[in-house]
Design a protein that fits this description.
Two copies of one chain form a homodimer. Chain A is an alpha+beta fold. Chain A has a six-stranded antiparallel sheet with strand order 1-2-6-7-8-5, with helices on one face. The radius of gyration of chain A is 25 Å and the shape is elongated. The structure holds a DNA duplex (30 and 30 nucleotides). Chains A, B: Pfam families: 4HBT (PF03061). Chains A, B: Keywords: DNA-binding, Fatty acid biosynthesis, Fatty acid metabolism, Lipid biosynthesis, Lipid metabolism, Repressor, Transcription, Transcription regulation. Chains A, B: Belongs to the FapR family.
DNA sequence: GCAGCTATTATAACCAGGTACTAATAGTAT
DNA sequence: ATACTATTAGTACCTGGTTATAATAGCTGC
């Protein structure tokens, strides 16, 4: 009977996957010890499961984190700006992924939604250095994992003398408003800045 | 004359450091090609500069990113809460590190300062699920790389009927106030939540 | 000019943690 | 008995190094 002998193999495959997921730094030798099979079996199993060798796993992790580090400057703006009319309006899209949600509920953490809006409010201001001075925000409904958050910013006034701009941002999922915020942005012309925008 | 022959070595050391910093995935063989010296010289140089071999570098990067992934759940609260009196007040400390600042200016990005305050405002509410409904915030002065931001939250009112709490948060660097915020937190008793707190 | 020094290069043995391939063995199904 | 799968064993080879030992080149001080 095939099932009798095949089950242990599949079980071992699951165990092996779990062990490597739990500790990606485990060697085949250690897996041999824990699974009580020969090192060849471990390697055949990895082959079948398309799990790369330890060094390859470490390399992939290192590359992933290195790419993340390199792309950090891009994150100075949270969300992808898809339309921008300086000193007038702007639109950005931000997809809520696993790293943005409150793990227990799958609800996006507030500061990510805020960050998208703040980024856009700063970006829409046509100035070298623009920093958020104040913000008055309202989370209208929760944003969930997988949802695409579309933020629209409108510049309401620019008072040239004191270098302040008022920007309103509304964020939507589909046609539901999820967030609204009124930002006051300092359009710093170089001197002492007030805050860390995005 | 010693300086004549020693200079090229120090220059090469600088070049080598720079090359590895630019691309940590470079092999000694490739360094040999770029520096026009033997592979032994490259290895002696790495020894002198205490730069680990490629595989060790990748392992360190992988471990660092893996630790970061594992500690993510801890980041559900931004900042270390050092004092907490539920429904009354709380204090948290958050050190501004390189990953939190606007790279051009070394000024902390607004959403990190906001996130610390928001986290604390949510944490101080003695409820299973607490979500930010609205926030009225003001960035008083910029917070810079290396500064320790101390947030103090005070619960101002709890209206049991509609499950709302008002929380004030003030953040300081030393004795300078850098941020203030008025939060309205929903103390969700299980039904439809409004926002993604922290 | 020659010992003494540093810097560099060469050579060889060895290592971890594998891959790739071949072969043997055990169990079981038909 | 035959065929098939699963497992184990063994060997050669690979990358990207370490470690140690020795040879060579270039200059220095005297």
């Amino acid at each position: 009977m095939r099932t009798i002998e095949r089950l242990p193999k599949r079980q071992r495959h699951q165990q092996l996957s779990r062990l490597i997921e739990e500790n990606p730094f485990i060697t085949d030798r250690e897996l041999t010890r824990q699974l009580k099979v020969s090192i060849q079996t471990v390697r055949l199993d990895r082959m079948e499961l398309a799990i790369p060798e330890l060094r390859e796993r470490m390399k992939l992790m290192a590359e992933r984190s290195y790419d993340a580090v390199r792309s950090l400057p891009l994150h100075e703006v949270i969300g992808d700006i898809v339309d921008l009319q300086l000193d007038r309006s702007g639109i950005s899209i931000f997809e809520i992924r696993a790293e943005h949600v409150f793990s227990r509920t799958g609800i996006a953490r507030g500061h990510h939604v805020f960050a998208q809006a703040n980024s856009l409010a700063v970006a829409v201001i046509n100035e070298e250095i623009a920093l958020t001075a104040t913000a008055d925000i309202r989370f209208v409904r929760s944003v969930k994992l997988g949802e695409k958050c579309i933020a629209k910013a409108y510049v309401r006034s620019i008072s040239g003398e004191r270098s302040k701009a008022k920007v309103e941002v509304f964020s939507y999922v589909g046609d539901e408003m999820v967030f609204q915020g009124h930002f006051v942005i300092y359009r710093s012309t170089g001197e002492s800045a007030i805050e860390g925008g995005i």
